[in-house]
């Protein structure tokens, strides 16, 4: 198992689970392997009110963006989305997207990712930023990708 790859995938799954929740209706994954390691994976996670599409590459360069698509609009985080300091909200029926800028300085996605990394390192499944149900759901999705990649 490629630890670097699953670290990257977990980074993308954290905000998805925090924003969209744990109650998805289906997940479809595709993987590409080389020398026994997953080099690329795509996950489409469908929810009752939208979907999340995640593409992660180990050595393969993928576009550094995140889109959360729902029934009321789309949230777009472009260029290094994990920094969590800029996003666009494109509401259904609106002619222009709203742009939000913020400085998270130690919280936001960076804080969440540090929490998740600490949980993995210390064998915990819950923290103040990531709850037990959320971390279990992220682990389940990672297990699905492993099974699909075999």
> pLDDT below 50 for ≥5 consecutive residues: which ranges?
none
According to DSSP, the number of beta strands is 7
Reported for the largest beta sheet, the result is: 7 strands, antiparallel
- Shape assignment: globular
- Strand ordering within the main sheet: 1-2-3-4-5-6-7
How would you describe this structure in keywords?
globular, 150 residues, alpha+beta, 33% helix, single chain, seven-stranded antiparallel beta sheet, 3 helices
Task: Summarize the structure in words.
With 150 residues, this protein is α+β, with helices and mostly antiparallel strands. It has 3 helices and 7 strands, in the order H-E-E-E-E-E-E-E-H-H. The radius of gyration is 15 Å and the shape is globular. The termini are close together. 19% of the residues are buried.
Give the structure's gist in a few sentences.
Helix content is 33%, strand content 32%.
């Amino acid at each position: 198992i490629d630890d670097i790859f699953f670290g990257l995938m977990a980074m993308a799954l954290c905000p998805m689970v925090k924003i969209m929740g744990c109650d998805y209706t289906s997940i479809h994954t595709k993987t590409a392997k080389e020398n026994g390691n997953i080099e690329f994976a795509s996950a489409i996670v469908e929810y009752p009110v939208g979907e999340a599409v995640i593409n992660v590459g180990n050595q393969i360069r993928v576009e550094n963006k995140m889109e959360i698509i729902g029934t009321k609009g789309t949230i777009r985080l472009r260029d290094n989305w994990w920094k969590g300091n800029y996003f666009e909200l494109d509401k259904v029926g609106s002619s222009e997207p709203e742009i939000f800028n913020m400085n998270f300085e130690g919280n936001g996605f960076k804080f969440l990712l540090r929490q998740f990394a600490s949980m993995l390192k210390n064998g915990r499944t819950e923290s103040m930023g990531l709850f037990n149900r959320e971390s279990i759901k992220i682990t389940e999705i990672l297990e699905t990708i492993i099974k699909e990649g075999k």
